[in-house]
């Protein structure tokens, strides 16, 4: 809807009676017409309802400041130790698909030499 259409629809729907709480009416107006609250506040003023100028200034400030995007922190990939019955640690695979790496015997020798 355009602003003119929204204003005529609002006059027909809510009439010219001032709402009990203008801030609540602005929020309801914005949700009803799917517009932001600053636009709703301007239109409610055009309908003739009293709107606090400090509230409009606060809305202008809110909508003028850019929002920061949250930095998306990706966790490091888990360390996957590849092993099978022949190799304690598979370092990689040949082009033919055969694994190569540290065998279980070599692993035992490394562990024994460390202690």
Question: What does this protein look like?
Answer:
This protein has a two-stranded antiparallel ribbon. It is rod-shaped and about 90 Å long. With 115 residues, the chain is mainly alpha-helical. It folds into two domains: 62 residues; 34 residues, no CATH class.
Topology:
Blueprint: H1 3-14, H2 22-33, H3 37-46, H4 53-64, E1 87-93, E2 99-103, H5 104-114
Antiparallel strand pairs: 1-2
What tags apply to this protein structure?
115 residues; mainly alpha; 5 helices; rod-shaped
Short description:
This protein is mainly alpha-helical. The protein contains five helices and two strands; from the N terminus they run ααααββα.
Q: Whole-Å distance between the termini?
A: 79 Å
Using DSSP, what is the number of strands? Answer: 2
**Sheet with the most strands, sense and barrel status:** 2 strands, antiparallel
Q: What's the Cα radius of gyration?
A: 34 Å
Strand content: 5-15%
The class by helix and strand makeup works out as: mainly alpha
What is the typical, i.e. mean, pLDDT? Answer: 84
- As residue ranges, the low-confidence spans are none
Shape: rod-shaped
Number of domains: 2
Q: Estimate percent helicity.
A: 40-55%
| N-to-C order of helices and strands | HHHHEEH
């Amino acid at each position: 809807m355009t602003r003119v259409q929204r204003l005529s629809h609002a006059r027909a729907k809510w009439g010219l009676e001032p709402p009990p709480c203008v801030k609540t009416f602005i929020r309801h107006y914005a949700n009803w017409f799917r517009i932001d609250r600053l636009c709703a506040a301007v239109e409610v003023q055009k309908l003739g309802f009293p709107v606090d100028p400090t509230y409009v200034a606060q809305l202008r400030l809110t909508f003028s400041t850019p929002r920061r995007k949250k930095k998306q922190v990706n966790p490091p990939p888990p360390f996957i130790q590849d092993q099978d019955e022949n190799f304690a640690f598979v370092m990689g695979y040949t082009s033919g698909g055969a694994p190569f790496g540290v065998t279980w015997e070599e692993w035992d020798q490394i562990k024994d030499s460390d202690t």
